[in-house]
Specification:
The chain is α+β, with helices and mostly antiparallel strands. The protein folds into three domains: 73 residues, Phosphorylase Kinase, domain 1, CATH 3.30.200; 123 residues, Orthogonal Bundle (Transferase(Phosphotransferase), domain 1); 40 residues, no CATH class. Helices cover 33% and strands 18% of the residues. The chain has seven helices and nine strands; from the N terminus they run βββββββααββααααα. The strands form two sheets. A six-stranded antiparallel beta sheet has the order 1-2-3-4-6-5, with no helix packed on it. It has a three-stranded antiparallel beta sheet with strand order 7-8-9.
């Protein structure tokens, strides 16, 4: 626990507004609680952090999937961050369970992360702390990112390299939970390009989003081959039918119905 006494006990009111309800997680530096905004009567996430380590970068960041920060304040020497409550599992908890993942699961998580980061970067906001505990995975597969550390509008150039490096570490962790023989070549190639040993090869987020998708097969490849096989089978069927008609009728078409045969006579009963 960060602090002895009532600070980490359920029912504590912070800032005369936010009530602690259930503790979600704790580390040496932080505690995370599900709480309630007593004014707006809505669930919120309340994070207690050591002073100087308050993640406030997201604020009202208009990016789908970026967990919004509602309020920041201090309480008994600790920083407090009040943010949107999301019903989801932190990715670090999922990785701790040592479950086997499918490559499709990995792509779904990474694709959601890459989209959120790309949208935030487009608004001039890097994350600054991309790690499994800041990635939230909902039961329906929706991805959220929390704890944006950086703010928009600074004079410094946009620092995207740390976010991409964190993305690469998470990708490696996720792929390590897949069966080795199930990982497709395009994902192996991407993780190789994310190695920081050669910065010139490291892709940007747009390239990452494209590289996560399997390469399209050329029209002259397997699908075209299937089409040609189907066409050949159809031609063969027509040829067999034509040959059968010649054997049966001695001509390329069946004999005509005599003019004197009427429809009524075909339907007449003896």
């Amino acid at each position: 626990m960060l602090h002895a006494g009532k600070l980490t006990s359920s029912g504590t009111i912070i800032g005369r507004r936010y009530r602690l309800e259930n503790q979600v997680s704790d580390t040496v530096r932080t505690e995370v609680w599900r709480g309630c905004d007593e004014v707006l009567q809505r669930p919120v996430t309340i994070k207690l952090v050591r002073s100087g380590d308050v993640p406030t970068g997201a604020g009202r960041l208009a990016v789908t999937g970026a967990v919004a920060v509602y309020d920041t304040l201090s309480h008994e020497g600790l920083g407090v961050v009040v943010s949107e409550w999301v019903e989801a599992w932190p990715l670090d908890r999922i990785l701790e369970r040592q479950i086997t993942l499918r490559p499709a699961d990995v792509v779904e998580i990474l694709g959601g992360m890459a989209r959120i980061l790309a949208d935030a970067h487009a608004l001039g906001v890097p994350h600054g702390s991309v790690k499994p505990s800041n990635v939230l995975v909902s039961d329906d597969g929706t991805i959220h990112l929390t704890d944006f550390r950086e703010r928009a509008g600074g004079a410094e150039p946009l620092a995207t390299a740390p976010d991409i490096a964190g993305f690469g570490i998470i990708m490696a962790s996720l792929l390590s939970r897949c069966r080795r023989d199930s990982i497709p070549p395009h994902l192996i190639d991407l993780i190789g390009r994310l190695e920081p040993t050669d910065p010139s090869r490291v892709p940007d987020l747009l390239e990452i989003r494209l590289a996560l998708q399997p390469p399209r097969e050329p029209r002259t490849g397997r699908h075209t081959g299937r089409w040609l096989i189907t066409l050949a089978a159809l031609v063969a069927t027509i040829a067999v039918a034509s040959a059968a008609a010649k054997i049966l009728y001695g001509d390329d078409r069946p004999p005509d119905v005599p003019d004197e045969v009427k429809v009524d006579s075909l339907n007449a009963t003896p």
